[in-house]
Amino acid sequence: MSSPAESLSATTRSEDVYGSLTRLLRRRLLEGLSGLRGGQLRIVDALGETVVGQATGPDPVRATLQVHDGGFYRAAASNGSVGAGESYMDGLWSCDDLVALVRLLVRNRDRLDRLESGMARFGGWAMRMLHAFRRNTRRGSRKNIAAHYDLGNPLFRLFLDENMMYSSAIFTRADDTLEVASRRKLDRICEKLELQPSDHLVEIGTGWGGMALHAARQYGCRVTTTTISKEQHALASERIAAAGLSDRVTVLLEDYRDLTGTYDKLVSIEMIEAIGHQYLDTYFDKCASLLKPEGLGLVQAITIEDHRYQQALDSVDFIKRHVFPGSFIPSVSAMVEAAGRAGQLRLINLEDFGPSYAQTLHHWRRRFFANLEKVRELGYDERFVRLWEFYLCYCEGGFIERSISDVHLLLARSGNRREQFLPGL
């Protein structure tokens, strides 16, 4: 048994681990997290263990956050949730269940919002200024897209499905594989668009050619698709040539704003998030101008709740800062209103399948970490790995809690009077 002097000495050494400022910031953070609803968070650091929240109610979540360095508290205080994410990248803390932690924080967004106050407001102001300089002009869009999509095709091959679809699949069974769910999504799109061999489909946002290949191969239509990612353009062109479909699929390296001509059908799969909110009207005006009077268009989009849309536009989160520069997440009402302002488009069907995105992200994360050694062999360091772990968990937790979702907007030009039969709905 230790003597009183030894106990006092141990306590003093423990407190010396953190300076007075760090201890103050730690106390403020713990006070801000007190009273969490819908779950329980256990925080372990050099000063001991603190448990906040109550694991009561339906589906409570639990997580343990281990602080390895007091710099975590300083980062969270100075840059809010983005600072906390950055300190995760730097290895200053870890968590036994990062998805559960995100879910708990989403359930307590009012408290999370308060963590963005104080000193964090200055960090937020600086990040908003930086984000403003990432505006999606033609030149800015190329830089923003390259920052993520040109990381290297070998990296994306390690965790995407065999068709390289970097967008939500549609799961309907618990035992669906990612490949099955991804094909289901593509078929759902083609069926909604009533694709026929006589159709010419224009695609805004090629990805790695998965949609174009599927539409041409399975439905026999012609496809013109465009991307501004050099890496995506190169691989999509290679895949289409290998499939013997170069006579039916044209891959362009052009900004969507420069597309010309008219088409029977249009598709754009999770590309709208990359245009920037300032160009929402521009995007839908272009969609309308590309469609024939009787044409149909489908937009797949990640969405945010309508009541949080403006707040999201006015802030910069971890995804905008470190994953998709220049991006934004639209709300359903913002898109429908912009389509209406285009004057030639009307919404004829809306399908929400947000829970499927959580499952898609889970599959991606599992594959990414199953191939972790290959990721490292490609030259990506541990900070990059932690960034991607945080990104994938951050998004998965958001989709599970439905703070973000994924939808299909089926749009018709004013000359389209056909009644829509929507298979699978």
TrEMBL record:
Superkingdom of this protein's organism: Bacteria
Coiled coil: none
CDD domains registered for this protein in UniProt: AdoMet_MTases
Molecular-function GO term, any one: methyltransferase activity
Biological process (GO), any one: methylation
SUPFAM superfamilies xrefs: S-adenosyl-L-methionine-dependent methyltransferases
Pfam families (alphabetical): CMAS
Record Gene3D superfamilies: Vaccinia Virus protein VP39
Keyword Transferase attributed: yes
Catalytic residues identified in the record: C395
UniProt keyword Lipid metabolism present: yes
Similarity-based family: Belongs to the CFA/CMAS family.
PANTHER family with a match to the protein in the record: CYCLOPROPANE-FATTY-ACYL-PHOSPHOLIPID SYNTHASE (PTHR43667), FATTY ACID C-METHYL TRANSFERASE (PTHR43667:SF2)
Protein name: Cyclopropane-fatty-acyl-phospholipid synthase
Annotated source species: Arenimonas oryziterrae DSM 21050 = YC6267
